[in-house]
């Protein structure tokens, strides 16, 4: 019994003396050069234990001989840095930085340029994002600053660098800039023709239709001015017409007529709404008869703004007749 006590006591003393080394942190200065190999054993074991614990953090490196010890990364845990890593030639720094509300992933190049990859739980780019290959987005893509697409056959995967949506339902040709809309183009706002005129291949503002283009659209004002010009300037067109009954009352509406009046029996005056340039215009007046009786029409006075005429029967007496009046000339 006394021998057992004598053996147990030295073991307890040794364990107590080694305990700080076994439970302590890694110390690169232990064992010291002056420590004997026999005495260094607990310090070496303590350091190995700390190294194994550190390696097993985020790695496949169990602390037992029977465990898996490939050393492969299981999780990448990075300590947040207050600022980007220092730049050095031929070096780059991959790190987590202080993003304000939480740590964010970032990379710093050898030139000191920092690119942040995440922000508040989302994928993020603090600089230009370049996608060299084909990418598929299953969710919505929001571009508050707009999307700029450059030249090249890799644009949207098209050999002509076209931008195509929904199997050519909407296409912008990269080579020409032409836009093709397969369905209905519903414009809820106004289209300003002043920004889409001749130089842009759109509306033509030509009152005389001088271009005579087959692939251009004229503005409403140009069409009206052209038609008005034909009416007022062409001597080949009728400038006024009217039908009145035997008492001189206009029948229907007429054209370019201010009034018709019966001055006396068989005596009528027609006043033009727009005067002729002078009295050198032509007037055709036909009377209406219900029998074979012949009538004669004589112009008494022709002014730039009116014409006065009489209608007589075969006996030479004035008689009331309905008449048609047509006038041609320059106004």
Describe the fold and architecture.
Mean pLDDT is 77; it is low at 1-23 and 152-159. This protein is of the alpha+beta class and 331 residues long. Helix 1 (2-23) crosses helix 2 (37-56). The radius of gyration is 52 Å and the shape is rod-shaped. It contains 3 helices and 18 strands. 17% of the residues lie in helices and 24% in strands. It starts with a helix and ends with a strand.
Please outline the major beta sheet.
4 strands, mixed
Shape: rod-shaped
The helicity comes to 10-25%
- Determine Rg (CA atoms, Å): 52 Å
Number of domains: 5
Mean pLDDT: 77
Strand content: 15-25%
Order of helices and strands: HHEEEEEEEEEEEHEEEEEEE
End-to-end gap: 148 Å
Oligomer: single chain
- Strand tally: 18
What is the number of helices?
Answer: 3
* Sheet/helix structural class: alpha+beta
List low-confidence stretches.
Answer: 1-23, 152-159
Strand order of the largest sheet: 1-2-3-4
């Amino acid at each position: 019994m006394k021998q057992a006590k004598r053996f147990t006591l030295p073991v307890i003393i040794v364990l107590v003396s080694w305990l700080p080394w076994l439970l302590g942190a890694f110390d690169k200065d232990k064992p010291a050069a002056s420590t004997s190999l026999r005495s260094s054993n607990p310090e070496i074991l303590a350091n190995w234990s700390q190294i194994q614990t550190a390696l097993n953090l985020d790695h496949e490196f169990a602390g037992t001989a029977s465990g898996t010890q490939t050393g492969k990364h299981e999780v990448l845990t990075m300590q947040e840095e207050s600022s980007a890593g220092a730049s050095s030639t031929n070096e780059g720094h991959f790190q987590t930085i202080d993003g304000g509300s939480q740590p964010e992933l970032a990379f710093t190049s050898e030139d000191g340029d920092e690119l942040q990859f995440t922000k508040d739980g989302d994928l993020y780019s603090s600089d230009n994002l370049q996608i060299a290959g084909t990418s598929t987005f299953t969710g919505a893509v929001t571009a508050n600053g707009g999307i700029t697409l450059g030249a090249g056959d890799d644009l949207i995967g098209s050999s002509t660098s076209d931008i195509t949506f929904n199997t050519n339902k909407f296409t912008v040709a990269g080579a020409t800039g032409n836009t093709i809309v397969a369905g209905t183009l519903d414009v809820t706002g106004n289209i300003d023709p002043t920004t889409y005129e001749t130089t842009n291949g759109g509306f033509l503002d030509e009152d005389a239709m001088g271009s005579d283009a087959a692939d251009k659209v004229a503005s409403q004002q140009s069409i009206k001015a052209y038609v008005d010009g034909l009416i007022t300037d062409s001597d080949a067109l009728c400038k006024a017409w009217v039908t009145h009954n035997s008492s001189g009352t206009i029948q229907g509406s007429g054209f370019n007529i201010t009034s018709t009046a019966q001055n006396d029996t068989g005596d009528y005056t027609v006043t033009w709404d727009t005067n002729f340039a002078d009295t050198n215009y032509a007037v055709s007046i036909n009377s209406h008869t219900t029998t074979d009786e012949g009538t004669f029409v004589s112009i008494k006075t022709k002014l730039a703004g009116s014409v006065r005429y009489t209608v007589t029967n075969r006996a030479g007496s004035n008689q009331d007749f309905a008449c048609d009046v047509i006038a041609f000339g320059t106004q």
